[in-house]
Design goal:
This protein has 360 residues and is of the alpha+beta class. The chain has helices at residues 2-28, 31-41, 47-83, 86-92, 97-134, 235-241, 250-262, 268-279, 283-297, 303-329, 335-359; strands at 147-151, 158-167, 172-182, 185-198, 201-212, 218-230. The radius of gyration is 25 Å and the shape is elongated.
């Protein structure tokens, strides 16, 4: 059986890399390539720098592309074996469909492990590298929106900044909301159109301050044109350390959630992102079961139909995934069950199809 496993794995690997290249081209053909062309033609970046930015952008794409490429690989491999009557020959030799699935599962475990490594190691590192490069970009195109960071440089005071956008060229924070805490809890909320760091101070322009009482109620609202608070944090440090939850590793995000809970803050959305980090890599295993089952059921499909079937399956998967995430975000499901609902349904569907084909 080792010969059979090597034979299947060899074809699966070739089809997998075909899928990776195909989906990278399809996904990056729009916004990413446009941005890269803009950096080269209008921002004065060299070809080498543009290529570096492209490869640094790949980890965020590969997290989703690798499981989909596993699905395409399985469909193409099983379809070709079925169309050449190899599946019939194996069945006549006593090889069950479940035994046939083993090399595909082995391959998907490797891809799952690779996806986790990219997500936990490569993505956080690449995001930091991109931010450093993004300091040169006009308008902050490589700086992500809706980011947050903490400033606890002033003794006895902690400030949590929520920022819609960062303009690195002007060193401005745009659309800023700051929650200010002392030892007794939340004390005030600063909402400003923009903020900047100047001579050891955060300077807020055109906003509102909400002073919060001990019971958590708003006691007073103050409008201002300019407000200043002390800090030992520089703008350069902010741009280097800021991370979206999606860019954190599982451990970083888990620790951050623990810190947020200890301060009495809501963490449902962060927990949803945390469990998404476990659900996406294991989608490779789901797609193996579904791919083998459908590949056997539809043995005469070619490459084009295999690609189309992959797109339909992935679309159905992400519809269920989005539904589960929405239910979890609304409190109808726990974050774990909300993010894993698509995987569980995929395992059940693929396993059911394989069992049905085995019996018929």
């Amino acid at each position: 059986m080792k010969v059979l496993d090597k034979y299947i794995l060899k074809q699966s690997v070739a089809n997998f890399f075909f899928g990776v290249i195909l989906f990278v081209i399809l996904v990056s053909a729009g916004d990413l390539l446009f941005r890269l062309a803009h950096l080269w033609l209008q921002e004065g970046f060299s070809i080498g720098e543009v290529i570096k930015i492209f490869f640094l952008s790949l980890p965020s794409l590969l997290i989703y592309i690798l499981p989909v490429s596993v699905l395409l690989s399985v469909l193409l491999t099983v379809n070709r074996m079925s169309s050449d009557s190899e599946i019939i020959a194996l069945r006549a030799s006593g090889v069950s469909f479940r035994r046939l699935t083993i090399p595909f599962f082995l391959f998907s475990l490797w891809v799952c492990a690779g996806t986790i490594i990219i997500q936990e190691v490569c993505l956080p590192w690449a995001s930091v590298e991109l931010k450093e490069i993004g300091e040169r970009v006009s308008g902050g195109e490589l700086i992500p929106e809706n980011t947050f960071f903490r400033d606890d440089s002033e003794p006895g005071v902690e400030r949590m900044f929520y920022v819609k956008m960062i303009d690195p060229e002007k060193s401005l924070l745009l659309g800023v909301v700051v929650q200010e805490y002392d030892e007794e809890g939340l004390r005030r909320i600063i909402n400003a159109q923009e903020a900047f760091n100047q001579e050891g101070k955060w300077v807020f322009k055109e906003g509102i301050i909400y002073e919060v009482g001990e019971g958590g109620e708003i006691e007073r609202m103050i409008r201002f044109e300019k407000e200043e608070v002390a800090t030992a944090q520089s703008m350069e440090e902010v741009q280097k350390v800021q991370k979206k939850p999606q860019e954190m590793s599982f451990l970083e995000l888990k620790n951050f959630i623990g810190e947020e809970r200890s301060r009495g803050r809501k963490t449902e959305k962060l927990e949803l992102i945390l469990w998404q980090k476990t659900a996406f890599p294991f989608a490779s295993l789901v797609f193996v079961l579904v791919g083998v089952s459908l590949g056997i059921v539809s043995p005469r499909s070619g490459k084009a139909l295999g690609i189309g079937l992959s797109v339909l399956i992935v679309f159905a998967y992400y519809v269920i995934f989005s539904l589960g995430s929405t239910l979890a975000e609304g409190g109808g499901l726990s974050p774990f069950w909300g993010t894993w609902m698509a995987n569980i349904m995929g395992f059940a569907t693929g396993g059911g199809l394989l069992w049905w084909k085995e019996k018929n």
